[in-house]
From TrEMBL:
This is Cof-type HAD-IIB family hydrolase. GO terms for molecular function: magnesium ion binding; phosphatase activity. GO terms for cellular component: cytosol. Keywords: Hydrolase. It holds the Pfam family Hydrolase_3. It comes from the Bacteria. InterPro entries: Cof, HAD-like_sf, HAD-SF_hydro_IIB, HAD_sf.
Length: 277
């Protein structure tokens, strides 16, 4: 029976140095040659899905943690922040003197001082992920196609990420925007480095449900791969959930099984164990 496979990107398909293992590429290509469908399911917006990933050969993508769904080049669903919500977020972040970047399928748009303020934050994020070059990481290395000096009042936003000067900034954002989905990333609780604001009710699970309706797929045929707490709804929805060996304890606890780390051919080994290659 053909399977429908959903793969998170950062920490799952690529390692925390953004290295794409050759074994993962070969496994995906073999799985698709065997008749299985493979989609990435990521927090990245489409603008961050660089050509290297598309060249693997994919059936489509879920982006923005579930705000965007694409199947073979066809947009199945795209839920955007309204222009009014986007403007309110930008104004609120400016008033609170928090640096941020706007996530759109048309690009990532940095706030005025994000490059400077973001550098030590990205170095800390990289160090937590065990990257060798963490102390030298720059914003432009972390986000190679980020746009600086662009228009910040936009009508094409999936979500907005902002630097937390303290955990109180996240709590304040959640209170200020009850109409939006507020989250954090780059750490748990008060150790989080970023907050984010997106469309209410958006999850990877909801996006997968919409995709299955579109392609006539069955939940019984779904397999999800992930490494982080944000992937939990996807694991709860899909028939099989596989956590990466480098993943967090929360995702490992609810996984059907834990494979090896990304850099240790974890994806390919799991594909073999599941019988899709």
């Amino acid at each position: 029976m053909s399977k429908i496979i959903f793969i998170d990107v950062d920490g799952t398909l690529v390692d925390y140095d953004n290295v794409l293992p050759k074994s993962a590429v070969e496994a995906i290509r073999k799985a698709r040659a065997n008749g299985h469908k493979v989609y990435i399911s990521t927090g990245r917006s489409k603008a961050e899905v660089y050509e290297e990933l598309w060249e693997i050969g994919l059936d489509g993508m879920i982006g923005g943690n579930g705000s965007y769904v694409e199947d073979n080049g066809q947009v199945v669903m795209h839920q955007l922040l309204t222009p009014e919500q986007s403007r309110r977020i930008v104004d609120w972040l400016h008033d609170r003197k928090l640096e941020f970047y706007l996530e759109s399928n048309n690009g990532l748009f940095a706030s005025e001082n994000f490059e400077t303020r973001g550098e030590p934050v990205m170095q800390e994020y990289s160090a937590r992920k065990g990257q060798d070059n963490a102390a030298k990481m720059t914003v432009r290395q972390a986000f190679p196609e980020m746009i600086f000096g662009g228009e910040l009042y936009r009508d094409d936003l999936n979500k907005v990420s902002f630097i937390l000067e303290s955990y109180d900034d996240f709590l304040a954002a959640r209170e200020a925007f009850p109409d939006l989905q507020a989250g954090t990333w780059g750490g748990v609780g008060e150790k989080a480095l970023f907050g984010d604001l997106g469309v209410k009710g958006i999850t990877k699970a909801h996006a997968i449900d919409e995709l299955l309706k579109h392609i006539g797929g069955r939940i019984e045929d779904t397999i999800a791969f992930g490494d982080a707490k944000i992937d939990i709804p996807m694991f709860e929805y899909c028939h099989v959930g596989v956590a990466m060996g480098n993943g967090g304890e929360e995702i490992k606890a609810i996984a059907d099984f834990v494979t090896d780390a990304v850099a240790e051919d974890g994806l390919a080994n799991a594909f073999q164990r599941l019988g899709v290659i």
